[in-house]
Amino acid sequence: MADVDSQGLFWLYQAPNLALAALMYTLLGRFLLSLVFPDDSEKVIWRTFRQITQPVIEAVRIVTPAAVHERILVLLAFVWLLFIRMLVFVGFAAAGWLPAITGVAKP
Question: How confident is the model over 59-107, as pLDDT tens digits?
């Protein structure tokens, strides 16, 4: 285990994990809303989801062919973030920095 106290180690892993998870579910929300609202809709919920997720979409667009439709691009961004979350988990596990589960009775 690392020299970091348990609370610091907990938040060192959980903060990026929670941020990536929130962004992933926001992308799913954007995909579902894109089935209901047109791209030029002025609804507040649609504009908010677009503003939050647009930087991720633009980053994925760099490595994705231009022929891919934006709805599919949103799902690809979701998959990329899933892979990043998995890499964060594997990286922390390999370094021995995953927070330990305490208070569990051992048989």
Answer: 999 999 999 999 999 999 999 999 999 999 999 999 988 877 776 666 6
Assessment of whether the complete model's pTM goes beyond 0.70: yes
Alpha-carbon distance 36 to 45, whole Å? Answer: 12
Separation CA 43–CA 76 (nearest Å): 24
54, part of any domain: yes
In a domain, 102, yes or no: no
Residue 14 lies in a domain: yes
Dihedral-angle region of residue 101 (phi above 0 means left; psi in -120 to 50 means alpha; beta otherwise): beta
Counting the structural domains of the chain, the total is 1
In Å, how far are 12, 22, 61 from 54, measured between CA atoms? 26, 14, 10
